[in-house]
Amino acid sequence: MDNKVSVIVFSKGRPMQLHAYLESLLKFSDAEADNITVLCCETKGIRYGKVRERFPGVKWQTEQNFENDLKRAVADAGEYIMFGCDDVVFTRKFSLDSAAGYLRANPDVFGFSVRLGENIMPFPENAVCNDGIMEWDWEQSRERHFNYPWELDCTLYRKDDVAGLIGQEEKTIKNPNYLEAIVNEDNKSRLISRKHMAADKAHSSAIVITVNRVQDSYQNGFDDSMLTDIYSLDKQYNDEDNSLDIDKIAELENDQVHVGAEYFILRKADKGYSAQRLRRKKYKNIEKKIKAFTKKCYNYIERRVYRSGGFEKKLSIENTRRTLDILRNNDVSFIRIGGDEISIMQGRSTPAQQYDEKLDRRLREILKINDKKLKVAVPYYYIYPQKNLNPYIEVLSMSIADKRRFLMKHCVKDITYLDSCVTQAYHIYQEYDFEGYYKDAAKLFAGRDITVICGYGIFDKLQNKLLDVCASVEYQYVPVTEAYSEYDEILKKALTIDKSRLICLSAGSTAKPLACDLYKNGYKVWDIGHLLKDYDLYKRKTERTRNEIIRFYMPD
């Protein structure tokens, strides 16, 4: 391969899948090892030594600071860059040199995709095919995947275009999700001047096997049966000498980019064990299979129980509409506990907040507050199944069994909770009376004197401002991320606000104890979370695609 073409692949917690990525890339393409850079984010308990030894010619970079490491890799790259993620497996022959040549000859083409082809449905109606290459106007396409030009799986781009997009991004690029979210439905036409994409016509040459999750920024519909969790696969790869069978995977047909666990085919390595060791191994494997099968059965049953409404009697939660009415018609403060707060209480960090033991304790205390004047809210759809959810949120609702269990265990059955999703209806529901909902939401603020405590500048770019109906609006600012580390100063400053003003909080997990402490000091407090941004995007009729929703929930 021409050294003007570079591959930058991201990996976190998945050495087995990274092995398959590198093995299949080197087998099915003209890529060479010394033109491949692996940006590896180490995960506790996951071992990358073996895959490093198997592919010594690859440039290995252990992640220290994602944005700095990314910019360094881009600067060192050739004229063209293909990004990659470790859940990709290549399945057919393709040429990166030829793709680079096509980009060189066609300045209107932004990227050459390896994951798209005539087999991916629905196929774009405006595609033009010549000499085995299909080209289409992504801006005019309505077909999924074909109308989105920026992705990190396996599309070749010009280095200058990549550097330009990264260079103008104002937010910190914390991980690959943030990198992909640089381009979104709202800005893609403005940021990208090249309006065409291209791919080999005959067939796509890669698939994305979505069986486990390693980033904390969002959840996907991963296989949570524990057959493919990252720690089990680490043992399979490093201890059992197993790997993905890229040849058998390549034999399977696909009409979608993202495929499931049926494509996750393992090789069974012959180790030459002694008879005694084989017996022990057999019993151990039987035990593991029983545990895995039991867990898989539990998750299957859990989903069935959830869909049928079987958890509805476990907790009392008002729905979105009823929550809004309670806030309008009653003199109450309220605190929202959502997915990020549950993650912290489960001992995990979130994109905006590192795990903190003290914050964990405060959040657990808040869940048990029983005060008529201070209402606590949790996600209604976590417990009560809904038929009108956004498709992405509907998939999410199927893969949060752990969070459902947590709420049912730690919430108080005798307390009636509000719905924490009252502040993001547009991004939760696919169909809803949004117009009526936001008219009533505006009445919450009409004529009030309000002080908003929020992250620095997060509302500066809103085009439609729900708080325009207020008598006055003042702001106090806190860090967008890791705000809890400055909690004492944040609370001290907030206590200087006149108690005649309504305090509205949009400060992530830090807003929860802050709302509680301000309420105890005589303030009326609403934890409004994403409400102002949700309203703005509704008025702008922003498409609620998977990438848009991911971007919506990222720290601003």
Structure characterization notes:
The chain has 556 residues and is an alpha/beta fold. The chain folds into three domains: 5-209, Spore Coat Polysaccharide Biosynthesis Protein SpsA, Chain A; 274-308; 316-553, no CATH class. Helix content is 37%, strand content 17%. It has 22 helices and 20 strands. It has a nine-stranded mixed beta sheet with strand order 3-2-1-4-9-6-10-8-7, sandwiched between helices. It has a four-stranded parallel beta sheet with strand order 13-16-15-14. Helix 1 (15-28) links the parallel strand 1 (5-12) and strand 2. Helix 11 (320-329) runs parallel beside helix 18 and helix 12 (339-345) packs across helix 13 (357-367). The relative contact order is 0.10.
What's a concise summary of this model?
The chain is of the alpha/beta class and 556 residues long. Helices cover 37% and strands 17% of the residues.
Name some characteristics of this structure.
Spore Coat Polysaccharide Biosynthesis Protein SpsA, Chain A; nine-stranded mixed sheet; 20 strands; single chain; about 550 residues; 22 helices; 3 domains; alpha/beta; four-stranded parallel sheet
Placed side by side, the strands forming the largest sheet appear as 3-2-1-4-9-6-10-8-7
Helix/strand-derived class? Answer: alpha/beta
DSSP summary, beta strand count: 20
Number of helices in the DSSP assignment: 22
> How many whole angstroms does the radius of gyration measure?
25 Å
Q: What is the makeup of the main sheet? A: 9 strands, mixed
Shape, please? globular
Whole-number mean pLDDT: 90
What's the N-to-C terminus distance? Answer: 40 Å
Number of domains: 3
Q: What proportion strand?
A: 15-25%
Low-confidence runs (pLDDT<50, min 5 residues)? 213-226, 269-274
Q: How much helicity do the residues have?
A: 25-40%
